[in-house]
Protein 1
Amino acid sequence: MLFWKKSEEEKRAEKGDKSAILSLIEKGKREKAIEILERFKDNEELRGLLFRLYMEEGKYYYAYQLIEHYDPNLASAKEKALIYERVGELQKSAQEYAKLGDWESLKKAGLLLWQAKRHQEAMELLERALKLVPAIRRQEVEEPIRKIKEELGLVQRESLLERLRKGLKKTKEAVEFGIIFAGRKIDEELFEELEEKLIRADVGSKTALYIVEELRKEAIRKNLKTSDQLTEFFKKLILDQISRCEATLKEPHDGQTVYLFLGVNGSGKTTTIGKLAYRFVREGKRVLLVAGDTFRSAAIEQLDVWAQRSGADIVKKHEGADPASVVYEAMRKGTEEAYHVIMIDTAGRLHTKEPLIRELRKIRDVIKRFLPQEPTETLLVLDATIGQNSIQQAKVFKEAVEVTGIVLTKLDGSAKGGAILPICRELSLPVKLIGVGEGLEDLQPFDAKAFVDELLS
Ligand SMILES: Nc1nc2c(ncn2[C@@H]2O[C@H](COP(=O)(O)OP(=O)(O)OP(=O)(O)O)[C@@H](O)[C@H]2O)c(=O)[nH]1
Ligand SMILES: [Mg+2]
């Protein structure tokens, strides 16, 4: 009886009976409903229904065909903005966002036009957004404006080196190598002072002693009189310690590239993901952020803000959700919708060591179930302000999963930049990125030579 009723209903639906089609949808037979509705695109009412289904199912390209070839009035400005964006019609999308008029839509429109290389129009929209944006979110609009001005040559671009210089300011002020090596007499006092400064910069006492000993020997060997004659040798000693840790981030490859981020609370994982997302989106990649840190709702919200700032998409669940299930959903979406880059944020509560290790392994296994070769990078994020103390933390993460590199954050806020020496030696992991500030562009590759040159300039 039931079976008969069902097929009767389907028969009516097949003939374009709206209530029968609605009933199919209600029963979850959405694909069937879509298949039927596609034969009735000329019927205004059914076309509207088909459009709704396309939108709900995320079939933007089909929705796009409907509004382009049948009826532009099917979609609201907001829907059109989304559809055009998804099919890569950046200018059209921007036009629709601009119509909405609120600051976030204006910003979005500006970013899209910028991506479409229409700098002047992008600036105009962003300037409009700037007039409406609440004070605490102002930076989100100011940053792209500054960037566009840089690209247009209207303002001087801040170089990597300048940012690194700012980033190492605190460590430099604490050690003042410049003064020590400014032609002072070579004597015991000099070596003692140098050793103390090296320790203050957190290079570790053993390394400090080793470096000073080597300098002493060199001074005797070459009968040197003033400290400036030791500068190059000192640089070389430091460089010897850190150059083997220099490595660059593996860039996104064809297909989906997954980056997994580990690290204790507050080390800078979410911020680093945000900065990288910003870079990848600017390079034209589709980026998916994954809120795998479900421990605090604030952590999820923070990643959400970064997704908006950078123009990436996000997969998130409620606070307390199983992180591996968030990752599962993200991997499904990421592979089905062919995102280029998937970046996974995780929680790092060290006081629960065993559960933490289990959780991280579970996340890794979920990734591998979808993409056996991934993650391309598993990055351990360490906070430079706690210097050498981060080494112990790092070991727990290394025990959990295979770490491919370190991101050393907050160098700008730290006088312990020297900790990079013991970090490099004891963890035997390459340093792939360094964080030198809170801005979108304050993340850079680790260039050992530039690092040492800056520290000693
Ligand atoms: N000055 C400076 N601050 C940074 C840098 N990287 C991160 N921060 C700041 O450090 C704080 C913590 O960063 P998050 O990205 O929230 O750290 P997290 O690892 O995600 O922390 P939880 O989500 O609490 O586990 C934030 O206030 C960031 O703005 C950096 O390179 N320089
Ligand atoms: Mg976080």
Protein 2
Amino acid sequence: MPVVATEPRINAKQNLLYSHNACTPGWKHRLGLRSVNRPVFEGAWNCSPTCLLPRITSAIKREAGDGCGVSRQYQHRLPLGLLLLQQGTITQEELQIVLQAQRTAGHGRFGDWLRIILHMDESTIARSLARQWSCPIFGITDLQPARMALLAPAQLLHASEAVPLRISLEGRIHLAFRESLDASLAIAIERMAGIRLDKGLAMAHDFEEARERIEEADAIPVTEHRVDNTPALEDILVRSIMHSQPVASRFVRVHSTFWLRMWLEEATLNNGIAGPPHSPIDIQDVLIHFDPPAQ
Ligand SMILES: [Zn+2]
């Protein structure tokens, strides 16, 4: 179970020793305080919020890169209709008919209307998309729903229309997208899991089935926050880490959302290393949506 952090009661002399200038697990150990190695953020032990804050600040700077996480660098490519037209799969007239049907209905994806109006099969659509993205089409026969439900918060997967399928025999994550690849999400999941990831597409009905089966499995508890400035973001991160006292934690960004994952007990680690979880027990996710006020 998560260890709830309590402020250690220490006298003035200890307090001096306890300052983060003397911040090594050894000091804490010699002082006879328990939890000699918590909380850990990105591989570093932190004696206090004072000690943790600069690490948080630089991690946010690193993740934000181009201003605080507001950029949406989706790799825009040709819309599906134009792509099929260019590839000679449909005619200009067919394109117009499908677009008109979609517009009149006021809902539904272009791909769905292609199937309805032109009776185009999913594999034709998937092959066209795969050619556009130069990526494989993944099947779902060896889907690992229980394990995949633990890989990333559903909120992030939904936003990018992605679903993880399995960890391959070669130890690589297969991450499937519905229509377009999202490099930001893929890199974040890869860094969080600490193993390599391959991006691909899944056919519509495979995608839906995989998503349903994964959503039925147990997920890691998520706390969500919304902030509009960097100090508020820092504050949530420091509080979360000091409160949960993780033995390992990682921090990444997906578009305008920051994702902190905390491994709370040694048993959740693999030879001391945080990796793709095997169980939702004693792992926590924190999602912080960064939404700066319009200028
Ligand atoms: Zn310290």
